[in-house]
Amino acid sequence: MDLVFGVLPSGLPYWLRVGLAGAVCAVILITLVALGPIAYVYVETKIAGFMQDRIGPKRVGPHGLLQTIADALKLMFKEAIYPAGADKMLFILAPCLVVVGAFLSFVVLPFGSRLQAVDLNVGLFYVVAVSSISTVGLIMAGWASNNKYALFGAMRSAAQIVSYEIPAVMVLLTVVMMVGSLSLQDIVWAQGGGLSRWFLFRYFPLMPVAFLIFFTAGLAECNRTPFDIPEAESELVAGFHTEYSGFFFAMFFLAEYTEMFVVSVVASVLFLGGWMAPLPALQQLGPIGLGPIWLVAKAWFLVFVMMWLRWTLPRLRVDQLMYVAWKVLLPIAMVLVVAVGGLALWPLTANGFPWDRWAGWLLTPLLFIYLAYMIVAARRWSARRAREMAA
Amino acid sequence: MSTDLQGGGYGWRVDDIDTDEMILNMGPQHPSTHGVLRIELRTDGEIVRAARPHIGYLHRCFEKHAESVDYPGVIPYTDRMDYVASMGNSLGYALAVEKLMGIEVSPYVQTIRVIMAELQRIASHCIAVGTYGMDIGAFTPFLHLLRDREKILDLFEWTCGARLLYNYNWVGGVSHDVPDGFVKACRQFLREFDAVTYPEMIDLLIKNKIFIKRTANIGVCAPELAVSYDLTGPNLRGSGPPRDLRRDEPYIGYENYEFDVVVGEGRFGPRGSCFDRNWVRALEMKESAKILHQAVDRIEKMERADVHEKVPKRVKPAKGEVYARSEAPRGQLGYYIVADGTGVNPYRVKVKSPCFTAMSIFHVLARGMMIADIIALIGSLDVVLGEIDR
Amino acid sequence: MDASSIHGRLKDRFGEKIVAFQSETLQPWAVVAPDAIADVAAFAKSDPALAFDNLLCLSAVDYPKEDPPRMEVVYHLFSYEHRHVFVLKVHVPREGAHVPTVEGTWAVANWHEREAYDLFGIVFDGHSDLRRILLPDDWIGHPLRKDWVDPDFYNGMHVKPTQQMAERAMAGEKIGVGPFDFTPPNRHVEE
Questions:
Q1: What interface predicted TM-score (ipTM) does this complex get?
Q2: A213 and A335 share a domain?
Q3: How far is Cα B327 from Cα B121, in angstroms, rounded to an integer?
Q4: Which residues of B touch A (CB under 8 A)?
Q5: Is residue A362 part of a domain?
Q6: What is the CATH number of the domain that holds B272?
């Protein structure tokens, strides 16, 4: 927002400049947020199709690109059904709250060194706080539907989200302790200098574990498989959004994919270096900074991993889910907080273990080599199948 | 969603129920109840205190219909009972009537019947294991297994023209001979199945830690309880006893084939759990593939014979009755046929369907489970409502 | 054990309660007096020589034309241990049939007997939960009996439209119950 503020002519009164800057930022963000899920839904259906040995959408538009738009239009034109006995005000308010909780987090996400709506000095705290508004919306949705299944879904969801907030936030604390600030921009700046300086490889192997815990807890926050008990399709029909149709359902959908993106962006900012490039040389393309591209690429990669997990793993039962949160993730998170806090204070390891640098530069190429190997193996597998079928 | 308190024995009266407990209705329309099944659950939060299944939503009076059509005319009706595995139903009926009339079919026809029955077994277990995975939340293995079921259905369509309800096993023979090139197509399917589908299914679903955690400790059924409730087929073998009609009382030439009887081993939890029943089904697919290899090799060496050779012009058995059993994919299917010696219609056809008895154990196993486990339990019993309700 | 030995063993134990024995058929059966069936069942399961631990099937058959008219409840028994099959039959009158339940011996009989009650009207004494299983709970009658006639009405709705009703509907009159109005799709309107 400072950027826009600076661009506006200084002749205008202060309040007008602030207002216009805010408005422009809001419009840009809302556009991004609204357009994002369209792409994500398409990508998810395509990925689901390829993983299930079929082609996803292919008829609506070239390669099915317009499928999501068609779906969105259909949902908008559907009749909005209000169940009898439903609390009408809460029924309508619930999806609004869920969406608001997802949207509000975008305000502090740093897409570049100056491309951030507001650089709050409590940015991380703010993100965690506003994403909990969605939880209230979920519970409202379940209650207001006057439907036992929806109520079940809402109760499970409330328990799940609250339980997984705790390990997630504790792991965030480790990063905050290393940086000394809650501001997301400061966290990104602290990871400058290339791949090996990313927090993912700091205090190796402690921070990778922290990243995994955060990612798992983030999956649970978004109600994605393997933690999608609240929307367990085969058990509770559709859980807390059973009774919602048409545009309300679209809003829940929108909020889910937006949450996924937010969680991925926060994970990238905290662990994967935010808008920093792996090599400082790749940071700028002439005068244009490539920050946003790097951040979005990292976030999209994590979103892809979330989708990958959804179509591979079965879902956990509610008590197993709770077990994982309280008895597995939380103790590890607590140990991490204490360990990383101590290591950050000790002057010898204030900047990480001595082998961190090598960890980063060794592991990342290994990861890419492994990915390449999997791709090659998959191609050989399908070539073999094609041979079998032709024989 | 309140209970109906009128007489007739619903049993649960409002004053019986604690204020903490909730009565939840699952079905008749529900994505995971494998048909139109209604289960009334009395739950305390997530724990189920009592469960009662209500069936009869798909009752189509098969047994009454059977009395008004002639013996061969009953066969399409039998297909529609367990519509997921029709070959088994018509086979059981044809065997019963042949026993009643004393007809012996030729080895060629027997081999064809074995091929069709085993292909149907693989197809049926594809649905069983696939939908079970989907109920647990793993969406992808279902589609992989359905891809293979499509290949089997293509083979069936090639042979007799129908994909799901075949009217194939006739009294005294089969309706269509296997076409030219069937052996080659069957071998190709088996090659793909053995190389790709089966290993992928085991890796992706059966050995999946979350799947094991969800299924390995619930729905444990002791062998005595299983026998008392007349559980048969994979449901019984999951609890331990290696009872398989194809091995114990072979019919249509099963004594000529080498295969193992898969039994639940209790690898990841107590024996007889939901996981074990599913394990039996998954591994049985491999055994059926083994039998298919042998059957296809056998039929290749046989010369073509007339499959309608022993089909009588008019099926008119003498007065008598018979109870014949066969190993359908879901368990032991029994037909009790009473012939009164006059007329071409059966006097009484009673079907003992394996899913009927499997469903009767449900209320015993469901006590104390969580709601998510109820779904897992129904899936592990592999019920098809068409067979229960007839 | 073969059928005659099994029958002999039952006869030794129960004497005249085993009313008849038919051995000239594919699957021999023994007819048991209705009031003794529960005891015979318990003995058949517990006796180590018989060990009939599995009730394969419990069917009911209606024989109105026999002399005397009767219904039969047929029990197919199997032993996993000895691998022998045997059939027990119980003859009951067509009206007011009462048979003791064998639910205590084989738990699966619970649902089988409910089905026999539902479709034939045979009442099983001592059954824990005798109510209809396949048909709707408010169904009247027992359909699988040989004297069953389909009803014309079910809960106020015409089940089988008569020829007269069809003609009236084709002539344009609205036939049905309540606000539901059935217009035959192939109705040809004469202008």
A1: 0.87
A2: yes
A3: 10
A4: 1, 22, 24, 30-32, 46, 133-140, 143-144, 147, 188, 191-192, 195-196, 204-205, 208, 210-211, 213-214, 370-373, 375
A5: yes
A6: 1.10.645.10
> Taking a contact as any Cβ pair under 8 Å apart, which residues of chain B between 210 and 239 contact chain C?
225, 227-230
Question: Per the domain annotation, does A263 fall within a domain?
Answer: yes
Lookup result for tokens 């089905």: C115
Q: What value does the mean pLDDT take over residues B174-196? A: 90
pLDDT at C174: 64
Nearest-CB residue to A234 (from B135, B195, B208): B135
In chain A, what residues touch B193 (CB-CB under 8 Å)?
A: none
* CB–CB contact B348 C62 (8 Å): yes
Asked if B205 contacts B141 with a C-beta cutoff of 8 angstroms, the reply is yes
A389, A372: one domain: yes
- Give the closest residue to A110 by CA, choosing from A284, A280, A282, A270: A270
The answer on A110 and A146 residing in a single domain is yes
Chains B and A touch (3+ CB pairs under 8 A): yes
pLDDT of residue C87: 93
Question: How many independent structural domains does chain A possess?
Answer: 2
Closest CB to C76 among B227, B243, B323: B323
Burial (CB count <10 Å: 0-12, 13-18, 19+), residue C145 = middle
Closest to B9 (Cβ–Cβ): which among C26, C76, C131?
C131
Tell me: domain C3-146, CATH 2.60.40.2470, correct? Answer: no
For A91-138, how does the pLDDT look when each residue is reduced to its tens digit (9 = 90+)? Answer: 888 888 988 888 888 888 888 887 888 888 898 999 999 988 888 888
Residues of C in contact with B334 (CB under 8 A): 56-57, 76
Note whether A296 and A386 are same-domain residues. no
Domain span at residue B125?
62-389
Q: Are residues A287 and A365 in the same domain?
A: no
CB contact under 8 A, B347 and C61: yes
What is the distance in angstroms between the Cα of B56 and the nearest Cα belonging to chain C? 4
The answer to whether position A47 is within a domain reads no
What backbone phi and psi angles, to 5 degrees, belong to C176? Answer: 160, -165
Of B230, B320, B321, the CB nearest to C55: B230
CA distance linking residue B46 with residue A229, whole number of Å: 12
* Residues C84-97: tens digit of each pLDDT: 899 999 999 988 88
pLDDT in tens, B228-274: 888 999 999 999 899 999 998 899 989 999 999 999 888 888 998 99
Considering only CA atoms, which of C118, C73, C115, C70 is closest in space to residue C94?
Answer: C70
List the domain range (segments joined by +) for residue A365: 357-391
